[in-house]
Amino acid sequence: MTLKTQMAADISNVFLNTNDFAETITYTASGEGAASISAVVKYENDEADPGSTAKKAILRVKQSDISEPTYRDSVVIDSKTWVVLNWKSSFGGLEWTIDLQNDERPVI
Question: Nearest-CA neighbor of 69 among 61, 79, 77?
Fold first, then answer.
């Protein structure tokens, strides 16, 4: 077994296991139907307002679950809708790290 094969197995069986670290989300890519997939979600709170709810999050998913993220794809986590801002490939092409935002009000 190669290191890449072992990492792919660990991503699926450990990190993206909903009994351990992951949760089920709904990802809707532009022009495609919604798909329920496993993801690790890290919420980022506004440091200037510690009591605020998260407006940004980082999502980690298997690349095989999403062909390629697109700006403004829709993600539903616990009935709250988020949009994709940025993304990058990680773990040698095995995983997407996706930046999300749920509050797009302009900052003045």
Answer: 61
pTM over 0.90: no
Residue from 52, 105, 62 nearest 83 by CA: 105
29: which strand partners?
none
Each of the 108 residues of the chain gets a pLDDT tens digit; together they read 786 666 656 555 556 666 677 899 999 998 889 999 999 999 887 555 555 566 889 999 999 899 899 999 999 999 999 999 999 998 788 899 999 998 655 555
How many Å apart are CA 60 and CA 34, to the nearest integer? 17
Burial of 30 (0-12, 13-18, 19+ CB in 10 A): exposed
The residue type of 53 is T
Map out the domains of the chain with their CATH numbers: 3-101 (2.40.10)
